[in-house]
Amino acid sequence: MGEVSIETLALHESTSYKPVPFGKEMRKQFLFTPEWTNINHGSFGASPKAVRDKQKEYQELCETRPDPFIRYTYPKLLDESRAAVAKLLNVPTSTCVFVPNATTGVNSILRNIVWNDDGKDEIVYFNTIYGACGKTIEYISEYSKQQVKGRVISLAYPHEDEDIVKLFKEAIAASRAEGKTPRAAVFDTISSQPGLRFPFESLVKICAEEGVLSVIDGAHGIGHIALDLTTIDPDFFTSNLHKWLYVPRGCAVLYVPERNQPMIRSPLPTSHGFVPQTKSELVNPLPTSNKSEFVNNFEFVGTIDNTNYLVAAEAIKWRQEVCGGEEAIMKYNIELSRKGAASVAKILNTNIIDNKTYSLSNCALSTLVLPIKVGDGGVNREDVRKATVWMVDTAMSDYKTFIPFLWNSAEQKWWIRLSAQIYLDIDDFEYTGKILKELCERVEKGEYLTAN
């Protein structure tokens, strides 16, 4: 790389970018192979070449002088990225740290809460919870020897926002009526499967009124929808930066307001920043810092390449200069999602999952019903799993794309989730609609039954 100083790679010395139109021209800024249609941005995200190049610079700089970089330069650059993300969320930098992903964020929260030993504590959540977070609640219940248990709220979409709010209030009331203590509630900004927006702002208010800790799984939040956490004021919030903010994976923000930071005693895993309540002879080998215990805990969590954390600020800068800023990105993605979903629904002669106020679709994810008959004259119910796997695999092998399929057992129908993004346009959705139509026809012919 040549003689490159730390100062040369500081954020204020970063590259200036030129604006690029959304759609096919913007696609060139990413690394997709020519034949691949990335209609599933929501699962793992994607980052621009320019941001990845910046990360490579930091990686190479680290290799030139590992100790000075890891011990002294890394924390300074990390603070710059934390500050940029905090500004985007409208919160103090002191309330934001980075973790590898939102699942780790949710685990960091729930595993640090000290549950009451009377066995009455409950975690309230919806049946649309992300699977890993649902498993986390089950694990904590098991690990705590049932000191805390989960209380699930079942949703059958489409719901209006006020219906979800009503069910949430009823679940809290039911918990107390049964002599339980609703200690915490976990809910999404936008659920993963199905991909629908949640009335999380209203749920936070209810939690505050009811004395329940609000834990927002914002995996699909930052960079996707506008978020003002000072106004929303959740007790805890985590969000992937590698999905919709274009930071290289995996990277997520964990927001904990200062009032709740004493609750978060340790990151996962526990590392040098942990301050035990009892006297310890162990010395922190890292440079002395005047940052808070919360920030120090998460700054260094074992040796791992976290240079992706360092380019969060660069990704935000890229979004501003290349894309025209957050509002322009969100406007394009949400409009494309609605228009694209409508075009796919027309091709398939099916319907989009939404409510009368269109609040569920007020995001860049859309969920549609797949028009395949199940039961009499259609796919046998015992073959649903096999047909699902076949459709996923065939979409990748024959059509060079990935489409998330969700089996809705209550309605005995498949749902699909599509993602809009700045590197896509309406042509990509129309192509996806044609793919899905062919897949449906091939399933109806029983082609999946002969698959190995």
UniProtKB/TrEMBL annotation:
Record keywords, A-Z: Pyridoxal phosphate
Instruction: Keyword check for Manganese, yes or no.
Output: no
Which segments of the protein form a coiled coil according to its record?
A: none
Leader sequence range is none
SUPFAM superfamilies xref list: PLP-dependent transferases (SSF53383)
Q: Does the keyword Cytoplasm apply?
A: no
What is the superkingdom listed in this entry's lineage?
Answer: Eukaryota
List, for all copies, the residue spans of the domain called Aminotransferase class V: 77-354
Identify the Pfam families for this entry.
Aminotran_5 (PF00266)
Entry-linked InterPro entries: Aminotrans_V_dom (IPR000192), PyrdxlP-dep_Trfase (IPR015424), PyrdxlP-dep_Trfase_major (IPR015421)
Q: List the PANTHER family hit by this protein, alphabetically.
A: HERCYNYLCYSTEINE SULFOXIDE LYASE (PTHR43092:SF2), L-CYSTEINE DESULFHYDRASE (PTHR43092)
The identity of this protein, by name, is Aminotransferase class V domain-containing protein
